[in-house]
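Reminder to self: tokens first, then the designed residues, so the page reads top to bottom the way the pipeline ran.
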């Protein structure tokens, strides 16, 4: 019996070590990792630069409160500002906390302007923004809301890709639109550039803020540093986590200067957010991700993954119903139950991936993936489809 909350349907597999794109379990078996700890291990496992930075930081100061200046935090914040639209950064420990900060920032921005009645946020069906009471209300998924009392007020939900459904929800109380440029948990749905541009215009025309959740799709995963760059827009606030720490708990809320300006002492805080150890690791991740050619290679590998997935879809039209996503955040909508497929790939083919909503198989390889890794992944998925087909063919004979 485990002493842990039974909130996860855990496999009995446990991993003892990792090298690059590979993980090795307690029995020494090797797995190809297209899971990345749900898009967290951007540099794979055991990256030498990351490990070195962590060890060096561990010999210094692990933690001080944010009532003191933290040089590594200041440096990471400035580097993120220099690389993005943002003028200011607040560091958190997770994506959910980054989203909470984003929502608070948007509401407080209008309150500081004397418009405290503007607090409503338009979000989208199929979204996922975290597991706090605030972020499950923002996501609006009934399965995640059930059993936790009335949802936190102030959130409405439009249909992804449908500007008219967004317009219909705008009222004098609306302060912001919150969206994932590529939905992850909800089914790996990529928003079109036209839709993102339309949301930006709606915000401009109605004096609202555009908040982007790039917790999963940001930090290079789609082939740009942030996914919003593909549509040529400029957001007001962006939440990021997962890849920013490369496996170390770290998140951030990035905002334009005028938007962040209302967040004065006392309006928000975090005990651990942006501590010396976390931000030392964050700087090491940024060293690699922003190195010349790194994101260009991610983009190239995203294109190769897309091509190989198209070949897979042509080969197995009975099992592959639709291809989704962007770059190295890709999804395969299946005709066969996705949970069974994830288990089969893990147990029979030593291949790690993850399911998503709408019966989608989600592929999230580390950003260091090679085409050889992609080809091996396609071979493993093909072998799983072949096995399912063979079992189906044998079933009538067995009966």
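Designed residues (399 positions):
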């Amino acid at each position: 019996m485990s002493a842990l909350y039974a909130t996860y349907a855990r496999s009995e597999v446990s991993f003892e070590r990792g090298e690059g794109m590979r993980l090795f379990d307690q029995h020494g078996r090797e797995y190809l990792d297209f899971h990345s700890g749900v898009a967290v291990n951007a540099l794979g496992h055991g990256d030498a630069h990351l490990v070195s930075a962590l060890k060096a930081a561990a010999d210094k100061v692990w933690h001080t409160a944010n009532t003191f200046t933290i040089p590594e935090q200041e440096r990471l914040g400035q580097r993120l500002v220099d690389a993005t639209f943002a003028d200011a950064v607040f560091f958190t420990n997770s994506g959910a906390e980054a989203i909470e900060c984003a929502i608070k920032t948007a509401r407080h921005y209008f309150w500081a302007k004397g418009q405290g009645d503007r607090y409503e946020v338009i979000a989208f069906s199929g979204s996922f923004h975290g597991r706090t009471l605030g972020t499950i209300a923002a996501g609006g998924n009934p399965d995640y809301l059930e059993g936790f009392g009335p949802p936190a007020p102030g959130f409405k939900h439009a249909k992804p890709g449908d500007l008219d459904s967004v317009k219909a929800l705008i009222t004098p109380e609306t302060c912001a639109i919150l969206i994932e440029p590529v939905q992850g948990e909800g089914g790996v749905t990529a928003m079109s550039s036209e839709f993102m541009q339309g949301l930006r215009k709606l915000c401009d025309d109605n004096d609202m803020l555009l908040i982007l959740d790039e917790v999963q799709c940001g930090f290079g995963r789609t082939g740009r540093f942030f996914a919003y760059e593909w549509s040529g827009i400029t957001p007001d606030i962006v939440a990021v986590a997962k890849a920013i720490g490369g496996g170390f708990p770290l998140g951030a809320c990035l905002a334009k200067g005028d938007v962040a300006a209302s967040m004065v002492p006392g309006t928000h805080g975090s005990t651990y957010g942006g501590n010396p150890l976390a931000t030392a690791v964050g700087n090491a991740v940024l060293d690699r991700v922003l190195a010349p050619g790194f994101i260009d290679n991610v983009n190239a590998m995203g294109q190769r993954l897309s091509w190989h997935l198209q070949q897979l879809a042509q080969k197995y039209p009975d099992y592959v119903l639709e291809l989704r996503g962007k770059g190295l955040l890709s999804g395969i909508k299946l005709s066969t139950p996705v949970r069974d497929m994830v288990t089969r790939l893990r147990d029979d083919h030593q291949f790690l991936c993850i399911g998503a909503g709408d019966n989608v198989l989600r592929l999230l390889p580390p950003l260091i993936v090679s085409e050889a890794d992609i080809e091996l992944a396609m071979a493993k998925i093909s072998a799983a489809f072949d096995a399912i087909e063979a079992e189906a063919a044998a079933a009538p004979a067995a009966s």
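The chain is about 40% helix and 15% strand.
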